[in-house]
Write a structure and sequence with these properties.
Alpha-Beta Plaits, 10-stranded mixed sheet, 4-stranded antiparallel sheet, 2 domains, Aminopeptidase
Length: about 475
């Protein structure tokens, strides 16, 4: 990753983007986006493989040869396939860049939604449909960008790769990003990758507050708490009750707060967001950025679930089960505790702390599963990464700060960064304060956010592709 060059013509296009209502190229992009939304990729009913094949067909029509289109699927997972597309660079010595997007979506029931979740609907300034925000808008932009580059005859200095994968939203599915990192590492080899995780934040009036760039994320880990017991008739109760033991342990976990931790990204996030947010919360952000041990600032920030999530490791119960009959003492009681582990803390350290907190030999605590390798350190926010973002963002959203952040959730970047491909969350699409229905009902994204985000990413990728 080296110094970015300027793209004068492209930035001029961006400056006038807001003034235009619908450009011809936006009409074509909208059709691509619509097709992707209306291809059901929820599992197990939908098919990522079909979506990947359809996107490959568009790229082929734009001029990509079969040799640069790599469809893949693992044996036993015929609906969970993906696509790697390659636009070769002119400099063999320049390491490629990678555009990553998962194309699977969370399941959606038609009966629960106001509109059909798998129909692309534009209404009231929003695009509605499952995946409009998470994350088919960005996946469509990646495909669209490669098509535009090809049709324009653009010759990037470094090779531009794109990976559309499945399995990000379903823990039991075949995860394409993980498979590529472990089985086809050379195919996706890159100096860095762009992914979901960052994006714009709007206030309650729709005004841009900040454009975030995600560097690093917390590690999701489930722990199983289990109590087994001989049980017996409910008319002969004893204090040695499996549900009592389990409930007592969970209450001890509830009462504990993991120590406050920081990364460069989280400190910068609070420092740069403070003047944007203002008021009591803004003052707490500024105080915390100056002194991460400020107890008063921590108390204010912790009251907000979103900000609390990036202050430290968190653990909460998410599933609970116990007993086998309403007239019997329970023979078994279990709980799943989902922890989001702050970078620098290990899975084993959290396990040891949970055992210490529960302090009950009747409660067995084990690691339930493992999603990916723990990232030891977040990718660095170098000037080669941040400079182009700040330059292009200044044209589209003058005065809106670019803010580094760490993600409290999880993305497929967790598979690439440990494999030696630093992965950054950058989208340029601004979301509403309520989360836009992601993973919930009536998912949507503002039309303006999609189109401006598309322009932003197109120019950003072009700059990165020409870096020396």
């Amino acid at each position: 990753m080296l110094r970015a060059i300027s793209v004068v013509a492209g930035l001029s296009l961006l400056a006038g983007a807001a003034a235009a209502q619908t450009r011809p190229d936006q009409v074509k992009f909208r059709a691509l986006y619509k097709e992707l939304i209306e291809t059901d990729t929820s599992l197990p009913s939908g098919s990522c493989t079909l979506a990947a094949e359809r996107m490959a067909a568009h790229l082929k029509q734009a001029g990509f040869p079969d040799s640069d289109l790599h469809l893949f699927a693992a044996p036993g997972h015929p609906k969970e396939g993906g696509l790697v597309a390659i636009l070769p660079g002119t400099d063999a010595g320049a390491k490629p860049m990678l555009l990553l997007a998962h194309i699977d979506v969370v399941a959606a029931r038609r009966a629960d939604w106001t509109r059909d979740p798998f129909k692309f609907i534009e209404e009231g300034g929003y695009f509605y449909g499952r995946g409009t925000a998470d994350m088919k808008a960005q996946a469509a932009v990646w495909v669209d960008t490669l098509m535009r580059f090809k049709q324009e005859g653009f010759k990037p200095r470094r090779t531009v790769k794109m990976a559309l994968t499945c399995g990000e939203e379903t823990s039991t599915a075949f995860n394409g990003a993980s498979w590529l990192a472990t089985h086809e590492r050379k195919l996706i080899d890159a100096a860095f990758a762009l992914n979901e995780g960052g994006g714009g934040r709007l206030d309650d009036k729709g005004k841009p507050l900040a454009l975030t760039v995600q560097a690093g994320e917390k590690f999701p880990q489930n722990y199983m708490l289990e109590v087994t017991n001989p049980g017996g008739h409910s008319s002969r109760p004893t204090r040695n009750n499996a549900i009592y033991h389990l409930a007592g342990g969970l209450l001890k976990i509830q009462a504990y707060e993991f120590p406050i931790q920081t990364t460069d990204a989280t400190v910068q996030f609070f420092a740069r967001m403070a003047p944007q947010v203002g008021g009591k919360m803004g003052a707490a952000m500024a105080a915390f950025a100056k002194n991460p041990k400020d107890a008063q600032a921590i108390a204010v920030l912790s009251a907000d679930p979103g900000y609390n999530g990036i202050l430290h490791t968190t653990c909460i119960p998410t599933l609970l089960s116990g007993g086998h009959a309403n007239n019997a003492q329970p023979q078994r009681a279990t709980a799943n505790v989902n922890c989001r582990i702050f970078p620098g803390t290990s899975v084993q350290q959290v396990l040891a702390k949970l055992k210490e907190l529960v302090a009950d030999p009747e409660v067995k605590i084990t690691i339930a599963d493992k999603r990916s390798e723990v990232t030891k350190a977040p990718p660095p926010l170098t000037k080669e990464i941040m400079g182009p973002v700040e330059s292009v963002a200044a044209k589209l959203w003058p005065g809106t700060p670019v803010v580094p952040t760490m993600l409290a959730g999880a993305t497929d970047g967790a598979f690439l960064t440990p494999a030696g491909i630093p992965t950054y969350g950058i989208s340029g699409m601004f979301g509403d304060p309520d989360g836009n229905g992601m993973h919930g009902l009536n998912e949507r994204l503002r039309v303006e956010s999609v189109y401006k985000g598309r322009d932003f990413l197109y120019e950003l990728v072009k700059i990165y592709a020409q870096q020396k």
